[in-house]
Automatic annotation (TrEMBL):
GO molecular function: DNA binding
Protein name per Swiss-Prot or TrEMBL: Helix-turn-helix domain-containing protein
Start and end residues of each stretch annotated as Disordered: 1-31
Annotated HTH cro/C1-type domain residues: 20-75
InterPro entries assigned: Cro/C1-type_HTH, DUF5753, Lambda_DNA-bd_dom_sf
Originating organism: Prauserella marina
Ranges annotated as biased composition (Basic and acidic residues): 19-31
Gene3D superfamilies noted in UniProt: lambda repressor-like DNA-binding domains (1.10.260.40)
C-alpha cells in the first residue's frame, strides 16, 4: 500500500483483471468469445485488461458483468474496482518518457509491502543518487536526449516508497556493480558514500554477493519480486534488462524466481559484512 494509505490504480486493475480471467475460465469462455459479446474490444485488448495493463469503458465493464452472469453484489464490486483502477497514479505524468512496463512497475511498487531484488549491472534505482541515475539514463540507447531529465526525475520519485515505515526493501547486489565507474570515478564514489550514509535503515537491507562467491543461477539477470499485504494480491516478478522484460505471476514462475533469489542471497555477505565491502571499495576510490 502506498504511503498515504490508498491502494494504487495499478493494483486495482491487476486485481480486476485476474477476477475477469478467473470468471471467464470458470464459465468456459474463450477470450475471443468474451470480447465479441462485449463489443468494442478485441481479444488482444481483453488480454491486456486481464493482465492489468489496460482498462475498460464504463459500458464495457457493465456489459461484462452481464455476459459473465455476476450477481448484483459481485457486479458492484467489479464496478468499484474498475472506478478505482481508472484513476491516474503519479507515474502517469511520465507516460511520454517511460515504457509501459515502467508505469506498471511504479504502480505495483507503490503498493508492495516487501520488494526483494537481485541486480548485477548497477546500483538499484531505489538507492541511487540523482547524478548516478543521470549517468545510467544517459548511457541508455532507449531514451531521447530531450527526455533525459524527466526520466531521471521518474527514477528518483520511485524512491519515495522508502519513506513508508511499513515497507521493506531487500536487495542483493553483485559486487561488480560497486566497481563499475558509472558516470566516472567521482560519481561512483559519491554514490557509494550515499549508500553508506543514508540507506541503512530498519526497512532497507543491502546484501553484496562478493567476487569470491561460487557460481549461482541468477548471474546475468536482474529482477524483483513484489509481495503485497492483501492476500487477494499474489506476488509478482518483474524481469529487467532481458529480451523477456516484463511481469510474471504464474505459480511455477514465482517458485523459480523465489528460489533463484534465495540462492543468490545465500551467496551474499551478511548486512554488516556487506557494509564493510562497500566501505572498502569506496575508500579505494577516494585514495
Amino acid at each position: 500500500m502506498s504511503g498515504d494509505g490508498a491502494v494504487s490504480p495499478t493494483l486495482r486493475r491487476r486485481r480486476l483483471g485476474r477476477q475477469i480471467r478467473d470468471r471467464r475460465t470458470e464459465r468456459k469462455m474463450s477470450g475471443t468469445e468474451l470480447a465479441k459479446r462485449i463489443g468494442g474490444i478485441n481479444q488482444a485488448r481483453l488480454s491486456r485488461v486481464e493482465s492489468g495493463k489496460a482498462t475498460l469503458t464504463k459500458v464495457q465493464i457493465r456489459k461484462m458483468t452481464e455476459v459473465l452472469e455476476l450477481s448484483s453484489e459481485q457486479a458492484e464490486l467489479w464496478y468499484e474496482l474498475w472506478q478505482e483502477g481508472d484513476q491516474l497514479g503519479w507515474w502517469s505524468e511520465y507516460a511520454d518518457v517511460i515504457q509501459e512496463h515502467g508505469e506498471m512497475l511504479a504502480g505495483l511498487e507503490s503498493d508492495a509491502a516487501h520488494i526483494r531484488q537481485y541486480i548485477e549491472a548497477f546500483i538499484p534505482s531505489m538507492l541511487t543518487t540523482e547524478e548516478y541515475s543521470h549517468a545510467v539514463v544517459y548511457s541508455s540507447q532507449n531514451t531521447k536526449p530531450s527526455d533525459m531529465a524527466r526520466s531521471v526525475e521518474f527514477r528518483m520519485k520511485r524512491q519515495h516508497r522508502l519513506n513508508d515505515p511499513n515497507f521493506r526493501y531487500t536487495v542483493v547486489i553483485a559486487e561488480g556493480a560497486l566497481h563499475r565507474h558509472v558516470g566516472g570515478r567521482e560519481v561512483l564514489a559519491r554514490q557509494l558514500r550515499y549508500l553508506l550514509d543514508t540507506q541503512w535503515t530498519a526497512t532497507v537491507e543491502v546484501l553484496i554477493v562478493p567476487f569470491e562467491a561460487d557460481v549461482y543461477a541468477a548471474q546475468g539477470m536482474s529482477f524483483e519480486i513484489m509481495e503485497f499485504a492483501d492476500p487477494e494480491d499474489p506476488e509478482c516478478v518483474f524481469i529487467e534488462f532481458a529480451p523477456t522484460s516484463g511481469f510474471l505471476e504464474k505459480p511455477s514462475e514465482l517458485r523459480y524466481y523465489n528460489n533463484m533469489w534465495s540462492v543468490a542471497a545465500s551467496k551474499a555477505l551478511d548486512v554488516e559484512q556487506s557494509r564493510e565491502r562497500i566501505e572498502k571499495v569506496w575508500a579505494d576510490l577516494i585514495l
